[in-house]
Amino acid sequence: MAATAPRPRTSTRDPEEITRRLNAWLRTRLPGAEAVGVTVPESNGLSSETLLFEIRHPQAPVHACALRLAADPAAYTVFPVYDMPRQYRTMRVVAEHTDLPVPRVLWLEEDPGPLGAPFFVMERVAGRVPPDVMPYTYEGNWLHAASDEERERLEAASVDLLARLHDQVPQREAEFLALPGEGDALRRHVTAQRAYYEWVVDGLARSPLIEDAFARLEDLWPRDPGTPVLNWGDARIGNVVYDGFAPAAVLDWEMAALAPREVDLGWTVYLHRFFQDLTVAFGQPGLPDFLRRDRVEARYADLTGHTPRDMEFYTLYAALRHGVVMLRIAYRQAHFGEVAVPADPDTLILHHGSLRAMVQGSYWN
């Protein structure tokens, strides 16, 4: 998205004030401790914020830390709710019941008083992350410069993360992630996305394209969504820290939910295609053989014995969900005076062309 628009602001908080308040809080958990080198990474997200720091104390459980802070309500938040205890619990469940490399979580603070919003602190894992800005599909970054064999290793290991997550967490341990409402897990998931869309457009221009996509989902609705599993939610390689080409840490669990396996798979496939399509549109070849839908589906089936079903539905659903997020981010930029709202709100969705093609059934042809 940075290829066509200025990088939107990610925080309205004052770094010096945050550092002072963080140190005051840290000493209540570890007397005499000091948080040093507090920084906000350039890749800080548009939802919850991340702070990186070192703990200076001889009895610190770890020294290199990352802090995930719920978004500042004054910053025109991307999501309506930031449930930090839910994320913290999800990471603990995944760490306890799987062999995925989830960072060790240290402390949860539910009181918004210390830093202005709830947060949790976790171990910071060294490594490298495929960039979003500019996307890893563009030339000039470590993943694009890798060999085909190295990218193949990374792809295989990344699909394996999903397979292990879905297979290893007992459903009963993920019941707290069940979304409210009526119907099965998939119906509840889509209903929650409809509610999110209504929140995004409240008092603003609605998106005919997004509403067409919701209608198309009903036409494609799976006959049997299957048994739900713990979904990572934001299942993409940009949320993994890699040591070489092997996963070292799986991050960003704020969108975790109980849902069909294919919700995660569709998100993995489409979020790569989002970057790939963007790269081709700007005159570069990108990585056309990387994370291809057919390869992801086949590898997942080999690992789990579950052949992905109804993937036209699930990739459309991923593109639709991403479209709602893009619309919110665009309205957020307009709120801060960074962009103007056009007459056609659909053009605020960066991938409106591919989303329309999916609605029409021509994208995968």
UniProtKB/TrEMBL annotation:
InterPro entries: ACAD10_11_N (IPR041726), AGP_Transferase (IPR051678), Aminoglycoside_PTrfase (IPR002575). It holds the Pfam family APH. It comes from the Bacteria. Residues 83-278 form the Aminoglycoside phosphotransferase domain. This is Phosphotransferase family protein.
